[in-house]
Specification:
The chain is α+β, with helices and mostly antiparallel strands and about 90 residues long. The protein has 2 helices and 6 strands. The termini are far apart.
């Protein structure tokens, strides 16, 4: 089920994308975010701070979201986004 993610890159540029779950076009709405996901395709990514690890694939919404979480500042995740375990900060 597609859902929306809003965030910003390290340089402050904002984005709002739809994660589609489609292998041919996993992210719609930002060429830069789509390129980031494409760059990490096939790599292992942690779905949460405590794991588990999964290979990034365009049709895997959780791994696509994990790439955005690791490489950008995710501000908001829309309804339908996979849950992430939270680790309390010390």
């Amino acid at each position: 089920m597609p859902f929306t993610v809003t965030g910003s890159f390290d340089d402050g540029s904002a984005y709002s994308v739809q994660i589609t779950g489609r292998a041919d076009r996993p992210v719609i709405g930002s060429r830069r975010a789509a390129a980031l996901v494409e760059l990490h395709q096939g790599e292992r990514v942690s779905l949460s701070p405590t794991g588990p690890m999964r290979t990034v694939a365009g049709d895997d919404e959780a791994s696509v979201l994990a790439v955005l979480r690791e490489n950008t500042h995710v501000i908001e995740e829309g309804k339908g986004a996979p849950r992430q375990a939270r680790v309390p900060e010390s």
